[in-house]
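Why does residue order matter? Because the sequence determines the fold. Keep that principle in mind as you read this record.
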Amino acid sequence: MKTIEFPWPIAEIVLQHHEKMNGSGYPQGLRGQNILQEARILTVADVVEAMASHRPYRPAHSLDHALEEIQINRSVLFDAEAVDACLKLFKEKNYTLEI
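Structure:
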């Protein structure tokens, strides 16, 4: 990805999307504002999609369960603004997740 020209630091965003606000993520153990904003947004989207999707080792969780999980961990694991925007999309704008 580093050889493709993007208007954003895509490789860095992808690298950081498993970082958590409290520093418990990986691969670098970044915390808070040291994580790119785009990566913080991608983290929330990835968690919701992953939880609501079937996996070979478990059935899909409900979308409500996935949204509850990001709400519970708002400001702890996940960026508060990214969580709020995600919740607004699903609860106020009636966004649906088609998996």
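The first helix runs from residue 10 to 16.
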